[in-house]
Amino acid sequence: MEIVTKEGIKQIHAKTTITNIASQKVLEKNEFKHTASSDVEFEMNGKKLKFVHYIWISHFNYRGE
Question: Around 65, how many Cα atoms within 13 Å sit in the side-chain half-sphere?
């Protein structure tokens, strides 16, 4: 996330499926915070799934501190 911060990016939004626990763990390990779980279902590979939404917010002070 260091490069993202240096580029001045303030937020990154991400989503994964509710059953993709590995992706959820990767997001959380990288300081993404869970923001919502979708109520809307969609079908993928014959399975009904929902999305889990995440956000990462930079806490970097843009003066370089």
Answer: 2
Q: Are strands 51-57 and 42-44 parallel, antiparallel or unpaired?
A: unpaired
Using alpha carbons, select from 25, 30, 27 the residue that is nearest to residue 1: 30
CB contact at 8 A, 37 and 17? no
DSSP calls for 35-59: EEE-S--EEETTEEE-EEEEEEE--
pLDDT digits (tens, 9 = 90+) for 2-56: 777 678 888 999 999 999 999 999 999 999 999 999 999 999 999 999 999 999 9
Q: What is the pTM of this model?
A: 0.80
Q: 62 near 8, Cβ under 8 Å?
A: yes
Q: Kindly state the DSSP code that residue 65 receives in the 8-state scheme.
A: -
